[in-house]
């Protein structure tokens, strides 16, 4: 039997919506936003010559003929080449971060249903594919680690939401004995179960927090280089502010995750396992009861255990979900899809999820160690996740970005 804290409190239940198994809904048409001015771009990579109105690929590399057809029909024909701003002097790159050159790219994802390893979710909220232009920025090379978050807590005395006792104001109908600090934890069932009820493998665990990711009897001793988890969006934003950074917009996150490529299914290409090699920490085996750990890890892994993408970013797929700054709406892409290009989008003004209309949700990206084609393939680079901004779990973390301050002409001359 599930604990009453899970059923009545619901403190972090909605954090799991990123991987919740539900049928995709047809998106409603939304009036597009006003057109914005196109930014002049300069190619700094080899340019593929084709008409500007043509797709960036006739047959995506790494896909079978049947998968290629499914890819193109599922939205892939809308991808255009990525173009980049002319590099400018930016000064020294902050420690632990990577410089992401600004540019213009096609944002969104295809319907992967029917493709090898494509899973069963249509990913309707990831379309229409649309053009976005971004300024340059820096991004953390890895997800924020336990060591880094501990330094923040030590310096500020910050207490995460999971460590705070839920209030009567938030949960007026919950019994007093259930108003206990804690968070959501993945607990593998002892046998195979139907995948129509995620409460069979998630539970609200009293005493679960960032120092005790799976409950009070667990800890992070010896795990300084693991991603910090059990942090909600509010916690992640507080850390970012203290560090002189911020959380990435959803557009910045996807642009960086693509590593300069256009329209690929994954951050590393179009094959889940190129040459038979695992490229991310995801779930293999029988979901949710047995993670076989074929990729080398069962559960969360330390950072930098898999190859970096084209921008030098590690674990941009799998391992831990990553918070973005944007509010989540499934119809947001429709509101900007008629723009020739949208400059530096910050996401919608508010949140709406038809699955839980009254819950304020932020975007999550990248998937986690629990993602699998048996249930959730949101490690695919263009796909989207979502979660209550005050909810946490043991598979959600974050990384930060920082604005680039242009180097003055005098300083450049002195160099």
UniProtKB/TrEMBL annotation:
Lineage: superkingdom: Bacteria
Region (Disordered): 339-358
Keywords carried by this UniProt record: Signal
Domain Sulfatase-modifying factor enzyme-like: start-end pairs: 96-402
Pfam families: FGE-sulfatase (PF03781)
Signal sequence, start to end: 1-20
Entry keyword annotation includes Nucleus: no
InterPro entries linked: CTDL_fold, Sulfatase_Mod_Factor_Kinase, SUMF_dom, SUMF_sf
Keyword Signal appears in the UniProt entry: yes
Protein name per the record: Formylglycine-generating enzyme family protein
